[in-house]
Each structure stands twice: as structure tokens, then as C-alpha cells.
């Protein structure tokens, strides 16, 4: 198993010397590439299963040399098995149909996601549902709209409402716009906490600028790095392959193999099965999302329930029969490479079954006073931390007297190590990229600057050369304009955001610095650390006592980087689907602006029309407008902006040791890099990815052990066992299986929510109806004398 993974991982770290695709450079790619190319020819079926267009392209080159055949494809095997190497440059892209369906989908998704995001049970609608629905709508418009050319008055421009059959490229651009509507606007959280929790008014213009600048700054960072992160064949963005497979299944004519199903038939079968099944975990039997048998056997033992609970403990013996449990926090396990899955599972094992048990059962940091697994903050008596005692109600600043008379901030042991590993992951990402990708980055950067692109690195880049590229000054213009508007938002309007100009520039500098390493990790492993913790920590040290400055700094530093990585991933999808870059840029920009405006407008409408929204103490009985996600955002602004990191992880806090994890994260990749050089043939060492290991549990909490266990089972089975033993089936069905499961859940969840749950029709009341694994003692403290309702006192 590790042999295959080692070959896969070696492809991630090959030198960019292969950019000049000549026969000699291909032979110089080393044994890893040669072995990978040999894996491809495992039998006659895998290449035939890639679709008629791909097969016809291969047949045209059957008489050429083996070296030339290698040049005509991508060095990453998953890409070779999934992405077609053909293109029709005559297909229209930004048509009237594209704009109509794309913008409409963007508006609908943005409105619904923001509307239901404030409710007790928020509903999140993704673009996969639009991907399915857009196809029949597009074909209906192609069959009914007139084909006559329409001339725009006072210009030479004209267009047709119906330029021909609805095509694949239109479909891709529609989804690019729709995905902007499903992605959310992080800055809306600032508007919400100011209005609903701090009881103040944020200037509407300042709020509008805050939302749009944080969403659009990422274009600047993406433009700077797109040559390396999009054109390079080794930056392959695994999650895009699910989309590519679904688009091909929906649009390509595929012959049904004897005794089997075509890809479209397989997708529809999976969609129907997933749709039908999800009524069980989504409505009738939610308890099936975490079955913790150890708790039921030892129902009176706190220790057994701490070990066995999949929701509040370590999850040993827990299992879930629900695809949504696997994908809800970590994304599709079928879209992650095998070596990533093993690294994530190792990281999960390290914290869950080594660090946490060893620390908890030795009572390190008084950890037995608190639950084993919790994201809450606690005082020294083991009770939930009372933030009102340390907050000045007039200035929303820090109350030193109240703090001195109360307690330092305590964390559960699992939450503490989650922070520690997030520190390590950040420095490990930089160190890993420097050691494993530094040389290729420098070489590619020099080649980009000297325009040395006479021979693009793979077939996809060569096919994209026929299209006019997006001028670099477009990105630079957006970047400069957004920085200027950001300064206006922060320094103007009576400085309501509290963030000074130097803080804004520091946040943008951090976003720029981390975009490249985090995008590299995302594009090769489908996993990446976030900047939310480090940004909160930096501004908390430099500018304490100002909660709005803290969340504004985090949003500018963290979200602009996230947006950049998202834009780059979309550009790579367009690269695979052969979308003209300018069309992709226009679709992305339009979708982002429209979605941000709709999110902002919907939030303002709800905040100003629903009495006591988010105020659980004053809301009417049974009101759904409780804003659970925004309450977490508010608490973070208090902890990091008011209490400050110095009183948690600094010399005034209890967890000063956690800063050593920055050093651990920086050193660990260097050790692995040295071992790969010392033992170049060792496949086990080659498969180790330190940033992924440290990032593994970054979603815990709110993710639970059962999420990781379920994700790991699916991932190991399909992307290691099936990938190795049944590669032909994997190449044909794996990514389509993932898309079908997602689509079925999306449709059923939407229907069940609107038709039943929104009307408080929740079925027969029984123990399986609870989203709980019935392990009540798992959250109990075990220190002597600590009293908690429902728990035994030791």
C-alpha cells in the first residue's frame, strides 16, 4: 500500500525542471514518474473507461513513440484517469443562458444560505444542487429561446439569446457563479455581532465596504501566484476532479459497458439511492449518525463513555451509517489522495489516542476538572466561564478588576491540543513548502518573470495557450482598489472597526505571505491549515482590548487568503475544462460581487426587521432566530479581543508551553526532508506530510471523533484499497460516486427542511430521533469535588 502512496507523493515533490517538455526532460523525471506511468497501463480497461474523446485522442497517437505519448498527458495519475485531453475552442461560453442561470442561481443560494444561517438549525445549500438542475434548464432554454441576433444600441456589439445547444463550458461557468452564492461572506459575522450582541450600529457604508473588500482582495493574491498554482501540472487540486467527473458524466456520450452502467446512469442511481436513504439519518433516525456501543455496554462508567463516545469522547467503537457524517467537516474522503488520508488519520490518532489520554489521565493542567472534549471556556472551579464578569459593558473593553477577582481562562485538554497543533501546522506549512517545493517555486518564478513558456508543462496547459490570458494588470487594479477601499472602511466612519491602518496592512501582508504555502498544500493534499487562530493571536498581542479590531484583522488576514485559494482552485477547474481564462475571470468576479451584495442585503434586512434576533434571553418561546454560529463568533471576539492571547497562551496565562509548538512545526518537515534524502527509496518516509498531520484535527471541535472515523473508513476503502486493487472501476466511478452521494443528500435535506422540519413536523418521538449518541457521562469532569448537573461527584 505504501509503495503506491510513495509513488503518488513523489509526484508532489518533483522539481519543476520538467516544465520544458522535451524528451530528455521527461526521461530525467526519475524512477517515481516512470513507475507511475507504468501503473497507468494496468490493463486495457482503464484507458477505455476514460471516455470516448480521451480514447480517440490516444488512438491518434498510438503510432508515436512512448516518450511522445508521455508528453501528451499529465504526470499525476488521478488527473490522467479523470480529465480529458481534448478541447473544442468553438463552443460559446459567456452566453445569455450562462448569465441568466448563473446569476439567478447565485442570488437564490446567497439569499437562502444567509436567511437560514441565522436560524437554530441552519441550512447550507451548496452548488451541487445547481449543477444538477442547471442542465435541464439550460437545455430547455436552448430549445425555446429565439436565435435572432440582438444588437446593443449605440454600439457595434450584438449577441444571440440562443447560440446553439447548451454546452459543457456554459455549465461550468454557471457553477462558478453559483458557488460564489454558496460560499458565505465571513464579514457578515462582524455586522451581526455589532448589531445583535454589542447593541450598536455599524455604518452601512462601512459594513458594505468591509464585506466587498474582504471578498475581493483574494483576486490580487491569486493573480500574483496563478502562473505557478494553476499552470503547474503538479498543483493538481484533487477536489476539482469530483466536479470534472460529474460534468463529464452529464455531458459526454458514454457507451454502457456490457452488464454495467454508463457514467450518467451510475450517477443517477447513486443520487436516487442517496436521496432515498437520507430520510433515515436526516429525519427518521438521526441517532444513526453516531452509534457508540461502548457507552451502551458500560452505561454507568464515566471513563468508558469518555473513551467510547463518538460525539463527546474519543470514539473508540463508534460507527456511523451516514455519508453526511463523513463529509460535513472534512469534505469528501473520495476526493482526497490516499497518502493524505493516511496522514490525516495518523494526526487524528496522535492527538486522540496519545496526547489527550496521556495528559488527561495524568491530570495535566487540571484537565480532569473539565470535560475531555469541549470547545467551551472554563473557570478554575470547572464551570463555564462567565464572560460578563470580565467585560466592561460601557466600553466593551477588558475589566481588569473583574478578571483579577474571578479566574484565569481554562481549556479542555482536547481543545488545548487543537490550538497547539494549529500553531505547529502553521509553521510546518511554511517549512514544508520551503524544503520540498522551494527550488521548484524559485525556478518557476524566474521562468514566469522571463516569460519562458515556449513549451507549457503538460497537455492541458498547451491546450489553454490558444485562449487569450487575463492581463496581469486586471488583478493588480482590483488589488490596489480594494486596499484603498479597505483603508477607507477602517480609518473612516469614526473608526468604528477599531482597526488602524497599520493593522490592516499587517493583515494583508500575512494573507499575501501565507497564500502560496497554503495553496500549495491545498492543491496537492486537499487539506490546509487556516489563518484564523494566528491572526487572532497576532492582533490580540499587538492591539489588545479591542474586540472589533480583532475580528476585522482576522477577516482581512484570513478570509482574503481563503478567497485567493478558492479563486485559484476555480481557475484550475477552468484549466481542466478548457474555459477561456477571461470568461472564467468575468464569471468569478460577477458571482463574487452579486453574492456579497445579496448576503449583505439579506443580513441587514433580517437584523433590522426581526425583534431581538440572536438574543436568546428575549426571543419568544420557540423562535428559530438564535444565530448559533454568530454566538461563537461573538465569544471569539471577547476571548481574543478582550481577554487577549497573552492571558491564555502568554506569560499571563496558563498555557505558555503551547508556543513551543511553533518551533516543533518548523523543525519536523526539515527532519522528514533530511530522511527522504538519506533514504530516497523508502516509500513510507516519502508518504509523510507533516503539515497534513498537524492540520488533521484542526476542525475538532466542532468536528467530532465520529466524523474522522467515518471519513477514514470511506477514504481507506475507496482511495487506497479500491484504487490499488480495482483501478479501472475507481477511474470510472470514484468521483461520480462522491458527487452522487452529495447531490442526493442536498436534495433530500432541502425537501425535508422546507416540507417538514420548518413546520416543526419532526415525526414520532423516540430515542433515535436525537442527534446524540446517548453517552451523557462522557462530558463529565472526573476531578474530586467538581459538581456538574447529571454527573457523579468523585
UniProtKB/TrEMBL annotation:
The record's keywords, sorted A to Z, are: Membrane, Peptide transport, Protein transport, Transmembrane, Transmembrane helix, Transport
Q: Where is this region: Disordered?
A: 19-71
The protein's superkingdom reads: Eukaryota
Subcellular compartments: Membrane
Q: Does the keyword Protein transport apply?
A: yes
Which Gene Ontology terms of cellular component type are present? membrane
Q: Which residues cross the membrane?
A: 96-116, 123-142, 172-194, 263-280, 339-361, 413-435, 473-490, 502-521, 585-607, 652-675, 705-723, 735-756
- Any single GO BP term: protein transport
Q: What topology does the record note for this protein and the membrane? A: Multi-pass membrane protein
Q: Where is the composition biased (Basic and acidic residues)?
A: 19-66
MF term (GO), any: oligopeptide transmembrane transporter activity
Q: What is its main location?
A: membrane
Q: Which PANTHER family match?
A: ISP4 LIKE PROTEIN (PTHR22601)
Family classification: Belongs to the oligopeptide OPT transporter (TC 2.A.67.1) family.
Q: What is this protein called?
A: Oligopeptide transporter
Amino acid at each position: 500500500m505504501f509503495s503506491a502512496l510513495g509513488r503518488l507523493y513523489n509526484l508532489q515533490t518533483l522539481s519543476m525542471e520538467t516544465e520544458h517538455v522535451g524528451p530528455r526532460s521527461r526521461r530525467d523525471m526519475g524512477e517515481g514518474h516512470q513507475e507511475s506511468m507504468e501503473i497507468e497501463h494496468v490493463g486495457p480497461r482503464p484507458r477505455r473507461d476514460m471516455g470516448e474523446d480521451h480514447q480517440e485522442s490516444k488512438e491518434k497517437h498510438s503510432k508515436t513513440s512512448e516518450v511522445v505519448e508521455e508528453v501528451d498527458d499529465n504526470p499525476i495519475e488521478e488527473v490522467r484517469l479523470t480529465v480529458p485531453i481534448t478541447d473544442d475552442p468553438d463552443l460559446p461560453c459567456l452566453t445569455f443562458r450562462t448569465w441568466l442561470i448563473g446569476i439567478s442561481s447565485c442570488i437564490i443560494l446567497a439569499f437562502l444560505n444567509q436567511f437560514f444561517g441565522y436560524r437554530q438549525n441552519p441550512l447550507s445549500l451548496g452548488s451541487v444542487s445547481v449543477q444538477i438542475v442547471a442542465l435541464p434548464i439550460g437545455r430547455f432554454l436552448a430549445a425555446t429561446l429565439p436565435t435572432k441576433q440582438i444588437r446593443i444600441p449605440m454600439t457595434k456589439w450584438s449577441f444571440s439569446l440562443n447560440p446553439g445547444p447548451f454546452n459543457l463550458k456554459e455549465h461550468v461557468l454557471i457553477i462558478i457563479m453559483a458557488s460564489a452564492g454558496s460560499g458565505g461572506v465571513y464579514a457578515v459575522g462582524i455586522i451581526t455581532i455589532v448589531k445583535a450582541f454589542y447593541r450598536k450600529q455599524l455604518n452601512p457604508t462601512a459594513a458594505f465596504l468591509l464585506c466587498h473588500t474582504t471578498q475581493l482582495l483574494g483576486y490580487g493574491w491569486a493573480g500574483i501566484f496563478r502562473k505557478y498554482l494553476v499552470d503547474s501540472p503538479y498543483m493538481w487540486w484533487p477536489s476539482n476532479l469530483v466536479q470534472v467527473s460529474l460534468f463529464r458524466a452529464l455531458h459526454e456520450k458514454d457507451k454502457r459497458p456490457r452488464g454495467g452502467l454508463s457514467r450518467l446512469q451510475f450517477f443517477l442511481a447513486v443520487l436516487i439511492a442517496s436521496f432515498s436513504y437520507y430520510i433515515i439519518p436526516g429525519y427518521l433516525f438521526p441517532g444513526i449518525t453516531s452509534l457508540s456501543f461502548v457507552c451502551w455496554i458500560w452505561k454507568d462508567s464515566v471513563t468508558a463513555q469518555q473513551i467510547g463516545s463518538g460525539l463527546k469522547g474519543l470514539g473508540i467503537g463508534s460507527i456511523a451509517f451516514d455519508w453526511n457524517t463523513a463529509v460535513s467537516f472534512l469534505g469528501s474522503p473520495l476526493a482526497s489522495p490516499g497518502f493524505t488520508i493516511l496522514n490525516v488519520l495518523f494526526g487524528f490518532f496522535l492527538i486522540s489516542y496519545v496526547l489527550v489520554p496521556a495528559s488527561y489521565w495524568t491530570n495535566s493542567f487540571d484537565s480532569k476538572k473539565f470535560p475531555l472534549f469541549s470547545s467551551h471556556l472554563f473557570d478554575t472551579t470547572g464551570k463555564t466561564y462567565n464572560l460578563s464578569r470580565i467585560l466592561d459593558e460601557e466600553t466593551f473593553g477588558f475589566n481588569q478588576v473583574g478578571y483579577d477577582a474571578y479566574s484565569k481562562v481554562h481549556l479542555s485538554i482536547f481543545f488545548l491540543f487543537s490550538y497547539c497543533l494549529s500553531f505547529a501546522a502553521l509553521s510546518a506549512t511554511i517549512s514544508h513548502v520551503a524544503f520540498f517545493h522551494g527550488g521548484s517555486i524559485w525556478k518557476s518564478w524566474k521562468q514566469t518573470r522571463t516569460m519562458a513558456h515556449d513549451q507549457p508543462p503538460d497537455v492541458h496547459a498547451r491546450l489553454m495557450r490558444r485562449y487569450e490570458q487575463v492581463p496581469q494588470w486586471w488583478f493588480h487594479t482590483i488589488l490596489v482598489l480594494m486596499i484603498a477601499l479597505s483603508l477607507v472602511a477602517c480609518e473612516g466612519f469614526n473608526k468604528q472597526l477599531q482597526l488602524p491602518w497599520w493593522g490592516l496592512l499587517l493583515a494583508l501582508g500575512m494573507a499575501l505571505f501565507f497564500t502560496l504555502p497554503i495553496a500549495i498544500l491545498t492543491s496537492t493534499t486537499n487539506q490546509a491549515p487556516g489563518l484564523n487562530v494566528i491572526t487572532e493571536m497576532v492582533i490580540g498581542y499587538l492591539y489588545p482590548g479591542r474586540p472589533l479590531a480583532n475580528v476585522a484583522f482576522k477577516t482581512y488576514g484570513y478570509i482574503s487568503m481563503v478567497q485567493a485559494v478558492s479563486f485559484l482552485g476555480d481557475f484550475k477547474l477552468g484549466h481542466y475544462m478548457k474555459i477561456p481564462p477571461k470568461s472564467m475571470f468575468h464569471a468569478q468576479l460577477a458571482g463574487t460581487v452579486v453574492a456579497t451584495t445579496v448576503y449583505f442585503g439579506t443580513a441587514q434586512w433580517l437584523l433590522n426587521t426581526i425583534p431581538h434576533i440572536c438574543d436568546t434571553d428575549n426571543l419568544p418561546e420557540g423562535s428559530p432566530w438564535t444565530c448559533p454560529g454568530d454566538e461563537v463568533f461573538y465569544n471569539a471576539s471577547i476571548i481574543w479581543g478582550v481577554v487577549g492571547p497573552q492571558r491564555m497562551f502568554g506569560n499571563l496565562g496558563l498555557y505558555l508551553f503551547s508556543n513551543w509548538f511553533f518551533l516543533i512545526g518548523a523543525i519536523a518537515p526539515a527532519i522528514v526532508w533530511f530522511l527522504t534524502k538519506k533514504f530516497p527509496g523508502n516509500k513510507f518516509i516519502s508518504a509523510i506530510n507533516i503539515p497534513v498531520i498537524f492540520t488533521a484535527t484542526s476542525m475538532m471541535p466542532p468536528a467530532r471523533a465520529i466524523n474522522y472515523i467515518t471519513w477514514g473508513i470511506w477514504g481507506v476503502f475507496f482511495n487506497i484499497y479500491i484504487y490499488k486493487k480495482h483501478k479501472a472501476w475507481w477511474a470510472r466511478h470514484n468521483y461520480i460516486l462522491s458527487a452522487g452521494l452529495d447531490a442526493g443528500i442536498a436534495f433530500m435535506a432541502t425537501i425535508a427542511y422546507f416540507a417538514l422540519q420548518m413546520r416543526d413536523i419532526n415525526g414520532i418521538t423516540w430515542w433515535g430521533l436525537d442527534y446524540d449518541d446517548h453517552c451523557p457521562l462522557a462530558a463529565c469532569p472526573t476531578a474530586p469535588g467538581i459538581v456538574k448537573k447529571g454527573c457523579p461527584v468523585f
